[in-house]
Amino acid sequence: MTGVHVAGVGMTRFGKFPGLGVADLGVEAVLAALDDAGLEPRGVQAAYAGHARTGRLLGRENGVGQLVLGQLGVRGIPVAGVGNFCASGSTAFREAALAVLSGLYDVVLALGVEKLSVRPEKGKPLTSDGMEFEGEFGFTPPAFFALVARSYMARTGATPEQFAAIAVKNREHAAHNPYAQYRDPVTVAEVLGSRTVADPLTLLSCCPTGDGAAAAVLVSDRAADRIGRARTVPVRAVSLLSGFGDPTLTGHFEVDRAAAREAYERSGVDPSDVDLAEVHDAFTVTEMIHYEDLLLCPEGEGPKYVADGLTSIGSRIPVSTSGGLLSKGHPLGATGLAQIHEVVTQLRGEAGARQVRGARVGLAHCAGGFLDGDVASSAVAVLGG
Predict the structure, then answer these.
(1) Residue 123: its pLDDT value, please?
(2) Of the residues 5, 173, 280, 330, which is catalytic?
């Protein structure tokens, strides 16, 4: 992909904010992204808004993007909502990139926003759409990924201690991220000793949900030239695939593998060229699996990469430099664009104490839902270079 650039990014802190509505969160993120790009709201020519649970929890299935942009005085442009499980924000980013690539627009906004702290049924999981019946009988996301963890452990010899080390590593990264929901350090013993959710996953092996928003301004070559390219970051590829049909729990996700291969092929980037990656670490085990599925490490060597510290900042391939979903938090629709925020910040060299030295190419991966033995949707973006 050529001719598409990220000119601005912005996000709110992730957490639980009872005094803020979904529009408040969205407006804050959009204004931050526009300010970062040096643009005014009236400069936006089209917009896509990703959200996954605003209908179920807030009674607003549609119109979130219109609500946010309306408060900024933006009217008379195409605005579309995007719902695609946890990959909703990533899908909004893809649609914005394709809108610019089409040549119809020079400036397109991608927004992701979610407010989950209003859930009326505390302790009841947010199951995948179409899985409500299974959820009533305990087949929830933690249960599904616990089964995946068992399969992966049998295949690779991974241990609960190695899974816990990922939570520790991501909390260390989050300590330097002012947007992260949790920044205090944790130990392997604390992770393993926290309440069991679905063996081998404990509470600290699972990502927290909450409230938050993130946004990105995507521009054409022409617009990038006009505003200046000193801080724009090229979008090399965006891939989005879905899968369904294989009930086998193999300890990896074929849709993620296919999306990654497509993104690498379209971008012309080799996996060895990736300097950092933001992945969908909704659970500790999923981050380890993503190392392999995204070709960031050889097949079966995820446990070794964790044991040797190869995915920490300053090592071979830093993963989840923002703290990841495990520490930054996971307000579903906002997550994918928060990953873009982190990758862009790193490639600009503006990440402060968590900066990956010399970062030139970054990858953002967000998966959503689960159907049979695989994720329902997988989005992979390659930026920089």
Answers:
(1) 52
(2) 330
